[in-house]
Amino acid sequence: MKRGGRKMKEIKILLVDDEERFLSTTRKLLERKGLQVSTAMSGWEAVEKLETENVHVVILDVKMPGMDGIATLKAIKARHPLVEVIMLTGHATVDSALDGLKSGATDYLMKPTDIDELVSKAEEAFAKRQVLEEKIRTARFNWSTKSALDILAGDEDD
Questions:
Q1: CA-to-CA distance for 61 and 86, rounded, in angstroms?
Q2: pLDDT tens-digit map of 83-112
Q3: Measured between alpha carbons, how far is 26 from 91 in angstroms, rounded to an integer?
Q4: In whole angstroms, what separates CA 67 from the centre of its chain?
Q5: Which residues contact 101 (CB under 8 A, 6 or more apart)?
Q6: What is the CA 61 to chain-centroid distance, rounded?
Q7: Which of 20, 73, 97, 124 is 20 to 30 Å from the Cα of 105, by its Cα?
């Protein structure tokens, strides 16, 4: 598989939807594209899985019974701010799209979505996360290499 090569296999996706058939079909299609995919059938299950699984990108349905997509998104971002979330819905409205994006979603797609477009959005979200992780590593390294005098002086040049 040439598309993305090794990088594609590094992306770990959590697909969240209350429709079992959609989950099963989309999981198979994403796995054929080389992605590692786990699934959850509710917002609560998704939040629980994120406590034990290393996930880079969540693909999250907006309309679900119980904890809907927006509430799930907010819970994910509160506990795991680096996890990128792509909202997915068959019932898109401008309000729900704006609410999702304001709450920290990376992107918003309509169902049914082209699988290559979904993979592309997941790759973009993963790349965004890698940039953030690198910034954090750099900041931590810079902090750890400061001398005690620099830290006490307050670093006026920062």
A1: 9
A2: 999 998 877 666 777 788 889 999 999 888
A3: 18
A4: 18
A5: 108
A6: 13
A7: 20
